[in-house]
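Q: I have 65 residues here and want to know how they pack in 3D. Can you give me a structure?
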Amino acid sequence: MLSEHGYHLVKILSKQPERMMGYLETQDMIRNYLYQEKFSQRLSEYLARIAEKVYIKRAPQRGRF
């Protein structure tokens, strides 16, 4: 598998048969997903507010390895 970081080897150790997820399992997954989305949104808004107030000067990068 090729990504922007190079090649990745993937080995499947075991397979499980398909199954329907239960209500509680699905509910937890959706809740976690929505929490992460909200957290990401609030973090982006917070960082944008800080960026408006702060001046950051980046030094040029020297010799990358």
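Q: Anything worth noting?
A: The mean pLDDT is 89. The CA atoms of residues 28 and 59 lie 44 Å apart.
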